[in-house]
Design brief:
The protein is α/β, with parallel strands linked by helices. The chain is built from nine helices and 14 strands. It has two domains: 79 residues, ACT domain (Alpha-Beta Plaits, 2-Layer Sandwich), CATH 3.30.70.260; 160 residues, Rossmann fold (3-Layer(aba) Sandwich), CATH 3.40.50.150. The chain binds S-adenosylmethionine.
C-alpha cells in the first residue's frame, strides 16, 4: 500500500492563521501539497497543511520552526494525522466538473443530476486509474468513438489501456456490442471493472489485466471492427503489427496518448502496415488519430 498523505492542523486566530499559511506555502523545503484555512467558529480558524508521503519527523520539526519564525511566542501545537488515501482522492475528484465530449457526459457521483435527456452519461470514480474525461486524449477518443460508431457498424471492440474503463463503457453504451478491455496495471483493471458494473455495462465489457495484446484471449476474440488504444507513442509503435493483425478489414483504429510532434511517427508505423489515416484531432497539444483498414489490400 502506498504511504499516506498526512495533515498537520492548528487552531488559531485569523491573523495568525493567515500569516502561518503564507509562511508554509513559501517554504520550499517543506513542499506542502496544499494549505487550507477555514473559519471553524467566529474568531477561531483552522489551518490544515497537507504533507507529502512518506511523513518524516524532520518535516514536522520544520513545520514547528516555520510557525515559531512566523508567530513567535504564540506558536500553536500541530495535530498530525494520516489521511486515508481514498478519501483524499475522492475529495480531489469532488472538485472535478463533468466533461462533455459529443453525446458523452463523463461525471462523478456528485454530478449525476447534470445529465440531460439525450446525453450518454458515464459515471466515473477515478481514484487510482487514469481516465476522468478531463484529459485531451480521453476526450479526443470519445469524440472519435462517437464518429466511428455513427459511420459504420461496430459489432466487436477492443480497448487497450482502459484505465478507468471510460472508453470501453462509452463503446458499450453507444454500440451495444461486446468490448474486451485491458490494462497493464492490475489496479486500473480492478477500477475499470468497478466502473463497468457501476455503469451497467457488465454484460458487454470484459476487463483483463494484460500487457499489450499478446495473450490468446485477444486472438480468440478477434477480429475487432473498432480498436481504441490511448497509451503512449512508444508502446503504440511497438504494438503496431499485433494491433493491425486483429483489426477487421473495414475496421477503425483510434490511437491517442501521443503529442502533436509524435503523431507522424505513430501514423507512419500503421500506414506502413496498410492502414489509412482518415482523421487527426488535436486537443490541448495531444493528438488522436483515426485510421481504417481497407477492405482489400
Ligand atoms: C492514458 S491512460 C488511458 C486511460 C483511458 N483509456 C482513457 O482514455 O482515459 C493509459 C492506460 O494504459 C495503460 N497501459 C500503458 N501501457 C500499456 C500496455 N502496453 N498494455 C496495456 N495497457 C497499457 C496504463 O496503465 C493506463 O491505465
Amino acid at each position: 500500500m502506498a504511504a499516506a498523505i498526512h495533515t498537520a492542523s492548528v487552531l488559531a486566530g485569523e491573523a495568525d492563521v493567515r500569516r502561518l499559511a503564507g509562511a508554509i506555502e513559501a517554504d520550499d523545503d517543506l513542499a506542502a501539497l496544499a494549505v487550507d484555512a477555514l473559519e471553524e467558529k467566529p474568531g477561531l480558524w483552522r489551518l490544515t497543511t497537507y504533507l507529502p508521503p512518506p511523513l518524516d519527523k524532520a518535516v514536522v520539526a520544520r513545520l514547528q520552526e516555520i510557525a515559531k519564525a512566523a508567530l513567535g511566542a504564540t506558536t500553536p501545537g500541530f495535530v498530525v494525522e494520516a489521511l486515508p488515501e481514498t478519501d483524499w482522492v475522492r475529495k480531489s475528484l469532488e472538485g472535478l466538473k463533468p466533461v462533455r465530449a459529443g453525446r458523452f457526459l463523463v461525471h462523478g457521483a456528485h454530478d449525476r443530476d447534470k445529465a440531460r435527456a439525450n446525453d450518454i452519461a458515464i459515471e466515473i470514480e477515478a481514484g487510482e486509474a487514469f481516465g476522468t474525461g478531463h484529459h485531451g486524449t480521453t476526450a479526443g477518443c470519445l469524440l472519435a468513438i462517437e464518429r466511428a460508431i455513427r459511420t459504420g457498424p461496430v459489432r466487436n471492440a477492443l480497448d487497450i489501456g482502459t484505465g478507468t474503463g471510460v472508453l470501453a463503457i462509452a463503446i458499450a453504451r453507444l454500440a451495444h456490442c461486446p468490448v474486451l478491455a485491458s490494462d497493464i496495471d492490475p489496479v486500473a483493471a480492478r477500477v475499470a471493472m468497478e466502473n463497468v458494473r457501476l455503469n451497467g455495462a457488465a454484460p458487454e465489457v470484459r476487463v483483463v489485466a494484460a500487457a499489450g495484446i499478446a495473450g490468446r484471449l485477444f486472438r480468440a476474440n478477434a477480429p475487432y471492427d473498432l480498436i481504441v488504444a490511448n497509451i503512449l507513442a512508444g508502446p503504440l509503435v511497438a504494438l503496431a503489427p499485433s494491433v493491425v493483425r486483429v483489426l477487421a478489414p473495414g475496421g477503425t483504429l483510434i490511437l491517442s496518448g501521443l503529442t502533436t510532434s509524435q503523431r507522424t511517427r505513430v501514423a507512419n508505423a500503421y500506414r506502413g502496415l496498410g492502414l489509412r489515416l482518415v482523421r487527426t484531432n488535436i486537443r490541448d497539444d495531444w493528438a488522436t488519430l483515426t485510421l481504417t483498414r481497407p477492405l482489400r489490400r
